[in-house]
Specification:
It contains four helices and seven strands, in the order E-E-H-H-E-E-E-E-E-H-H. With 147 residues, the protein is an alpha+beta fold. The chain is globular.
């Protein structure tokens, strides 16, 4: 899986790499699926569902679900994105230890109030960062927050 750092994606004049950078800086215990085990040493821990939903709200495409099998055999549900051009985006894969294997992804967007609340927290934090740094259009936030 790849996080497509080199892609030329942009929304509202903001390059993909800057959007993902802001998203990663917004990760916190409060946006993690499991805030009690989240740490700054592994900031992507528990962020896959909320990140996949947030990127879906910004870029569209599909949210895919698969199973991550850890080296010790434990299985964990994992979410990531596929854009409309079939590009795979997985910006949280680094939360898993080396030797983790993944099943093929299938469509399966996470649902629930918790995921949408955490996605709103990510978007609000990202918007606050951008409002201090640039006058770039915030149309992406308007689009994303209304989906």
């Amino acid at each position: 899986m790849s996080d497509t750092r080199g892609r030329d994606l942009a929304i509202g004049g903001l390059p993909f790499s800057e959007i993902v950078g802001a998203l990663r800086r917004a990760w916190a215990a409060s946006t993690s699926y499991n805030p009690l085990t989240w740490t700054t040493q592994n900031p992507g821990w528990g962020q896959c569902a909320v990140t996949a939903v947030t990127l879906y709200r910004i870029f569209g495409g599909d949210v895919l679900r698969n199973t991550a099998t850890l080296p010790d055999g434990e299985e964990i549900v994992h979410y990531f994105n596929r854009l409309s051009d079939s590009t795979i985006i997985d910006v949280t894969h680094e939360q898993f230890p080396k030797g983790t294997t993944f099943t093929l992804g299938r469509r399966g967007r996470p649902h629930g109030v918790s995921v949408m609340r955490r996605s709103r927290l990510l978007l609000d934090t990202m918007e606050a960062e951008w409002s201090q740094r640039t006058d770039a259009t915030f149309a992406i936030w308007d689009i994303a927050k209304n989906q």
